[in-house]
Amino acid sequence: MNRNTGLEEIIRNHIELAHFTIHKNDFVFKENDPPSGIYLINSGSIKIFKHEPDDQERILHLATEGDILGLHSVVNGFVYTNSAAAISDAEVSFISAKDFMELVNSNNTYKLLVMKNLCSRIDSMEDHIVRISEKMSDERFADTLLMLVDKYGINKSKELNVQLSIDELASYTCTSKSYMKKIITEFAHRGMITFSAGIIKVLNLGQIKNTAIVQNTVTVN
Amino acid sequence: MKPQFEHPVCDECRSRLGNVFCALTEVQTTEMDAEKNCSVYKKGQIIFNEGNKPSGVYCVNKGKIKIYQTGEEGKEQILRLAKEGDVLGYRSLISGDVYSGTAAVMEDATVCFISKRTFFDFLHTNSDLSSKMMELLSHDLKEAESRLTGLAQKPVRERMAEALLMLHEFYGIDTDGSINATISREDIANIVGTATETTIRILSDFKSEKLIDLVGKKIKVNNHPGLMKTAHVFD
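^ Those are the sequences you sent over. The predicted structure of the assembly is below.
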């Protein structure tokens, strides 16, 4: 997920960087706020989400070390199109919108790096769109698990190095909370995972991979 | 005698107005004119295929094009639509990846091809163009985000209303007031992310609710506010 485009290094080398700690559940920025600048994650994880009309959270992306937040909002100068909040304590570096745009405009090669970064974000967003329309909830949850393993890794006792609530898992997988619980129980029953107090233990990665593949032709409305 | 196909001239191409290539200098426009290749595509023809390596960008002079990904089961999911003035294939070129989707013609199209070398030449030397490309990609990301939000949560009826509003806004209306594009029911289903049968059923529901009119393949929006309400669009 985290494709280094070289932009990270350029931001890091900038003199006018501010550094913050964002505590768990605190916001980095909120949807519809004017874009004050760009955040680079040094450690921790941050969820990027939008509010649905009924005020539910829709997680679009989980960001981690090396990810850059707020890029497209700053480039286009519109408001932040999504919210960012820490799911574990996170260290971030901040560069103001003005400084960033000056930096980028100083060099056409930097603009290409910005473009590459945006491209990879759009790609992952479109993959997500295709998954939702094509896959059943359990297949999508298997995808979510694979993404989490890939992004955060698992420790020696097979636990994911990130903790997510059922709400957050449901939001990323695009299913309801009650159905999410059912799927987790089913996965646990089949010996693929265990889940307790936000900690997911990954027991059978092979079977999760198999589950992620579309099984039959059913269109979900 | 075979009818001669006339190459569109960039400088006279009204479609170019408003797209990123407006940023080109006069000299660059002439250079692009000399270098580009334009082709006519018939309905159903493929412009580029998912998984292929990009060798340039495509600029739509005329016609309507869909960009879709094919799922594991062979079902299309339409991700974007394009019309005259739109540029296609730039994302894969910039990221250096293969095409993430297939571009196929929905209504006969004239499309110009600009090679990778020329495109990158312009991008490196023209800072207006690179700024415009950055803005275009930022806009694309914003669109993809809202698309995901809509798709994930809204029931199929709301998504259908939203898709019709999108088509209405994107293609504008014909002289008879119908949406200025002939889009098959199957394509509409693939935009919404549902089955064709469901699409046909909901469209006929919308018709009996007098939200829309169906004239052959064409769709006329009768009750715009009503459709907005169905789609739960508030802004």
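The beta strands of chain B are 37-41, 46-48, 56-70, 76-82, 87-88, 102-115, 212-215, 218-221. Helices of chain B lie at 26-35, 90-95, 116-125, 127-153, 156-171, 185-192, 196-208, 224-231.

Shout if you want it in another format.
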